[in-house]
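Batch job 17 of 40 flagged for manual review because the log was empty.
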Amino acid sequence: MRSSRRLPLAAALVLLASGGVAALPNPVAAYPGWLAFTAVGTLGWLVAARAAETGPDTRTAVALVLGVGLVARALLLVPDVPLSDDLYRYLWDGRVANAGHNPFRWAPSDPALDELRDDEIWPRINHPTVPTIYPPVAQFVFRGIDRVAPTPLGTRATFAFLDLMAAALLVPVLRARRRSASLAVLYAWCPLAIQESAGGGHTDGLGVALLVAALGLRERAGPGRLREAGVGFFVALSACVKPVGVVLLPALLRATRSRRWVVLAAGAGTTLFLFVPYLDAGAMVARGFFTYAEHWRFNDLGYSMVVAVGLGPTAARWVLAATLAAVAIAAPFRWPDPLAAGGVAVGALLALSPTVHPWYIVWIVPFLPFLPRFARPAGFALVALAPVSYAAAWTLARTGEWAEPAWSRPVLWAPVMALLVIGLVRVTGSPSTPGDPGSSER
């Protein structure tokens, strides 16, 4: 079937899936049906990804990609119950900040914030004894939502729109690489991105959009120092939503060569400037993040393996952090292309993190077309299978207890690792292809 026919078919499948989820008042409680609709959307996404490789690079094609992405996200706003309760913390943080308090200083359960409690948001906040873990750019958006649309639906709509911006910003990156703009479907029509933004209201789409903006600047021609300052600026903004973009710094710095200091100075200066309004909290600024880093665990791969050989929880986390740093630093030497090396670093972050919520996996989606060839099938599998991990939330909805079923991690990670091993074997046993990010020549 020609790509001109496959793309409309894929769009129909994606919209059918979104429409099916829209009919479920509580998608998590209806997990088997929700997962079936998600599988239909994933099939459409995979068909679209294949068709887009040779698809048109026109304004009409971009309009179709973004238009379908917009409609799919609008449909996911229909269910009453969000996929996650994280957005209640977002709403609370915005309310706290707009009331003149520092959300890094006070946990939601602190009596100092009693006057802000209500019957809708406050009772649904998860981990109420822990101060916020969300950095300044996320806090800025939370404050805006609190002023304009302080509801779960308003939160989901805001992050659905910001998530779609990531797909739009991917278009110039693709064109700079002489790839079809139609490949923006990889993000725009991705069921995981659609669900985690419009369905769950998560901040990750905003962080991805800012990171893609940095990558777009990196690909543009223009005055060197100004461009590199912009790269540092946008990486810092992304990291101040979630610090995922930090693992890309080695790849970006190696590609920058003589102006690395500009990237670092712009990034460090932007980060410091954004944190200044919150520094009156002192050491409490980092308390929420360190509590998360020390204690959270979910859906992990590498952490389970390291603990299984006898390391304690703290030692295991340090070993994994050191391994991630080594991969992020070494990747640009094997793949000088910063998008390929950056994608490998993000993939390593997901594989080595003790906590891998499905919305974290959204961060690898914009790198899928640029991954080294050995890793692409595994990357697609990880994104396609990520919704399986909502089985724990389904258990909570049915029993009142949060528990990961024994089958959920193997269903997610076993195919990913199998495809990764197969990819490595194939690349090792075949000659390099010039121009491919997986070849030794890049």
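Reviewer: the log was empty due to a logging misconfiguration, but the result itself is present. The first helix runs from residue 3 to 22. Unflagging and moving on to job 18.
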